[in-house]
# Entry
Amino acid sequence: MRCRNRSLAVCSVILTLTACGSSAPPPIPQTLVLPAEYSTRCPPVIRQANSSADAAAIALEGMYKQYGLCAGRLIDLIDYINNPVEKP
# Structure
């Protein structure tokens, strides 16, 4: 009885090992290389020159421009990641 169980265990191990050896390896995912324009950081925050209302308005206008630039970069980056197409 003992020999029969041992041979059955050895047979199952051999069949399992040969099945793993003949299976195809898993596919390797490709890494996405970002263009340099998408890996740049946004510029630092614009500070107010003094406490006047004109300086606040100028700083606010600069912040709106920076926000538009950084938001546009983010949208371009998301589009590139979703549809990686080489640009000419």
